[in-house]
Write a structure and sequence with these properties.
Length: about 130
């Protein structure tokens, strides 16, 4: 049964990512600038909501259960994440001046940066299972 959960845990995000990127890939020449802004805004909203409900609120709840001032650990973690992204952005800027550097930057850094905290969040889910 665990293997089915593992397969589903791999396939569901894969299908979602494929659908989203395929939608943009096949429609990119036919999309107006306004529609592009709408779908980027939609993606931003989904990511913010996922961050709040899946990461920030559970962090606050865990801190409450440990008798710590509930908002401090989540705030410190959020600030450390912002600092980490700013540092990575400085490193990524060095690659942008090389041939295909901007594409490399978008691919490697955005995917890697997205997966690091996602993995951290998933570890909490498996720890509680």
């Amino acid at each position: 049964m665990n293997i089915l959960y593992s397969i589903g845990g791999i396939l569901i995000p894969f299908i979602g990512t494929s659908f989203g990127s395929g939608f943009v890939f096949f429609m990119k020449k036919n999309m107006s600038e306004r529609f592009q802004k709408i779908i980027v805004g939609f993606a931003s909203g989904v990511m913010i909501a996922a961050s709040v409900w899946s990461l920030i609120l559970p962090a606050v709840e865990m801190a409450e259960n440990q008798g710590v001032i509930s908002w401090i650990p989540a705030t410190v973690g959020l600030l450390l994440g912002v600092i980490f992204l700013l540092l990575i952005n400085k490193i990524a800027e060095r690659f942008e001046n090389k041939p295909n550097g901007k594409k490399l930057n978008m691919l490697l850094f955005s995917v890697t940066l997205h997966n690091i905290p996602e993995g951290m969040g998933k570890s909490r889910v498996y720890e509680n299972a």
